[in-house]
Specification:
Blueprint: E1 34-40, H1 43-56, E2 63-69, H2 79-85, E3 90-92, H3 93-96, E4 103-106, E5 122-124, E6 134-136, E7 143-145, H4 151-155, E8 159-163, H5 167-175, E9 183-185, H6 189-196, H7 201-207, E10 215-221, H8 228-231, H9 235-242, E11 248-254, H10 256-262, H11 264-270, H12 272-276, E12 280-282, H13 288-294, E13 297-300, H14 304-312, E14 316-318, H15 331-338, H16 348-355, H17 366-375, H18 384-396, E15 425-435, E16 438-447, E17 466-472, E18 486-488, H19 496-509, E19 515-520, E20 524-529, E21 533-539, H20 546-558, E22 565-571, E23 574-584
Parallel strand pairs: 1-2, 1-4, 2-3, 4-5, 5-8, 8-9, 10-11, 10-13, 11-12, 13-14, 16-22, 17-18, 18-19
Antiparallel strand pairs: 6-7, 15-16, 15-17, 19-20, 20-21, 21-23, 22-23
Length: 590
């Protein structure tokens, strides 16, 4: 080992010299009367610590906070990068044994805290909603109760387990007698943040790009084979294939252990078609709370996100549920018993619409029962950070700061580092019907990238509905423009001449297409036919999407409806009047 004690084989971290180190006093600025060491072992547990320690320890220079990085977990990938991203001081695991902390705080029960020789108290925070799940024991080939530290640490008298409801004290004592008398009721800071964020729902939806009355379907997957993705990795693509994109958006939140175990590259590969179709992939370290508050429907499993959603009253379907992992007698087990299940073998859209209440039978109280089950796991709502700070300072034997109680920050709006573009190749399903005010063209679009995942077969019928492939001419996946019936130009043309030239060129380059459409600045959209005719279209509202306006013309052609006059466009949950005027392109062949 080098003279400075740095062994690059042990986590690639050099030892700290300040605020922890033999000569730390020479370099410090703040007094640092107490040393708090937070154990960082997995991304999940580290995120929970970062969420609560900032508010609990704010404005107090008497406390030095460092994170000890334990690299022994199967899910340690990403922990060090996360700590560095927030500017935390990171203590290598070998140096942790030589430190002299006054308090150790952990949200992971697997770190070995008995062999280092420390005698300070250990405060254990749960990294989920209660103690409702069994997980593989990293020290043996058996399963164990998630969130419970080893008996050796409990018997030492140093460990204190924070709980969110008094019932959990009895549960823990029954499962492990050494836990009796070692619990502190603080509530759940994450649940409190969700409660405080409910009034920001519109802000969260705007951050996710959910506008025009679209409904947001949120998928939440815990890890292992009984999770949503473990049971059906194609479910995001199937939802996007069967739900019209002008009516619905789909977001996916995955447990951090999935990326830590398999890698972000592999996850992106498994979700490639769904991502091409517009799947919103929420970073597992931030954004899931805001996404949950923005969601209209949650499809979950036996993970904590599902439980939080139930407590908030979010409409819920179970896409999977690990009955053998949910602990009997817990609220989570009760949730699994009463929550409706998504039937993977059946068409998805009717199930989604029914869960959203569109087809809910009168008198069905399932939603209210689920909310009560969720609420039953959380006591002292709104006070968790205050109670946590009091517990921390009591264990430190330090008087709490005289400043106001810690703030209760609502979840930050989600930031999507790789926000998907709107799909440029879509299967468009249309029909023409008679409405009270005249003809009505109904348009529904689904991304072509996920068409193979749909279990619903649609075919043309006399009078509609009709089906065609619509694609931007600059789509990089060349199979789509070469097969499209309708081509459109994404960039607005400056003049009619420019639009008509593009139309003629597009129809020449793709001889299998029937129509080509381009919008003109201030002049609506021009939809060109092969015979030289052009339909000038414009909507009375803000709609200027050439793919949609071309779909109106395509439908009128297929239904032998005149290409003149007005029709009503029904798209998603909105309607607009569209005018049609038939003309010819200058110089086009007859």
């Amino acid at each position: 080992m080098p003279a400075d004690g740095y062994d690059p084989t042990l986590g690639l971290l050099p030892p700290l010299r300040v605020p922890v180190g033999e000569d730390a006093a020479r370099w410090r600025t703040f007094p640092g009367e107490r040393l708090v060491v937070a154990i960082a072992r997995t991304v999940t547990s580290t995120v929970r610590l970062l969420d609560v320690l900032g508010p609990a320890l704010r404005d107090d220079p008497r406390i030095d906070l460092v994170f000890a990085y334990d690299p022994t977990s199967a899910f340690n990938d990403g922990v060090h990068a996360l700590l560095r991203s927030v500017g935390a001081r990171v203590l290598p695991w070998p140096q942790f044994a030589r430190a002299h902390p006054h308090l150790i705080i952990t949200a992971t029960e697997n770190a070995d805290l008995t062999t280092a020789g420390h005698d300070c108290p250990v405060l254990v925070l749960p990294h989920g909603a209660g103690f409702h799940k069994t997980v593989p024991d990293s020290r043996s080939d058996r399963d164990r109760l998630a969130g419970l530290v080893p008996d050796a640490l409990l018997r030492s008298g140093r460990a204190w387990l924070t709980i969110s409801h008094p019932d959990q004290a009895a549960q823990l004592a029954a499962a492990h007698p050494a836990a009796a008398g070692r619990t502190l009721l603080i509530g759940d800071p994450c649940y409190d943040a969700l409660l405080d964020g409910r009034k920001l729902r519109d802000t969260y939806r705007q951050a996710l790009g959910i506008r025009d009355g679209r409904r947001l379907i949120m998928l939440s997957s815990t890890w292992r084979d009984h999770s949503v993705l473990g049971r059906d990795a194609a479910l995001p693509a199937r939802l996007l294939a069967e739900l019209p994109l002008d009516d619905y958006a789909v977001a996916l939140v995955t447990h951090p252990n999935i990326v830590s175990a398999h890698g972000a590259y592999t996850l992106r590969s498994h979700l490639a078609s769904a991502r091409d179709a517009g799947l919103l992939t929420i970073p597992p370290t931030a954004g899931w709370q805001a996404t949950l508050l923005a969601a209209d429907l949650l499809i979950g499993d036996h993970g904590s996100v599902t439980f939080y959603g139930a407590a908030l009253g979010t409409p819920l379907l179970l896409g999977a549920f690990g009955e053998d992992e949910a602990v009997a007698g817990t609220p989570m087990a009760e949730l699994g018993r009463i929550a409706p299940r998504l039937r993977p073998e059946a068409p998805l859209r009717p199930q989604i619409e029914r869960a959203l209440g569109d087809g809910q039978p009168p008198g069905d109280d399932t939603a209210d029962r689920l909310r009560k089950v969720g609420e039953s796991a959380f006591a002292a709502p709104g006070r968790a950070l205050h109670l946590l700070r009091t517990a921390v300072y009591d264990l430190l034997r330090l008087q709490e700061p005289a400043a106001a109680p810690p703030p209760r920050p609502a979840p930050a709006p989600p930031v999507l580092p790789d926000r998907p573009e709107a799909p440029t190749a879509c299967h468009v399903h249309t029909s023409l019907s008679d409405g009270p005010g005249g003809p009505v063209v109904t348009v529904e679009r689904t991304p072509a990238a996920v068409a193979a995942f749909s279990s619903v077969a649609r075919a043309d019928a006399p009078g509609g509905p009709f089906r065609h492939l619509s694609c931007a001419d600059d789509e990089t996946d060349r199979q789509w423009p070469e097969s499209a019936s309708v081509l459109f130009r994404r960039e607005e043309a400056g003049t009619v001449v420019t639009a008509d030239r593009w139309i003629d060129d597009a129809l020449a380059r793709y001889p299998g297409s029937l129509l080509a459409a381009a919008t003109v600045a201030g002049r609506g959209c021009r939809v060109g036919l092969r015979d030289g005719r052009t339909v000038e279209t414009s909507a009375t509202g803000p709609l200027d999407d050439p793919a949609v306006l071309a779909a109106v013309v395509y439908t009128c052609l297929r239904a032998h409806h005149p290409l003149e006059g007005f029709v009503t466009l029904a798209l998603g949950n909105r309607t607009e009047d569209v005018s049609l005027r038939l003309t010819r392109r200058a110089g086009a062949a007859g």
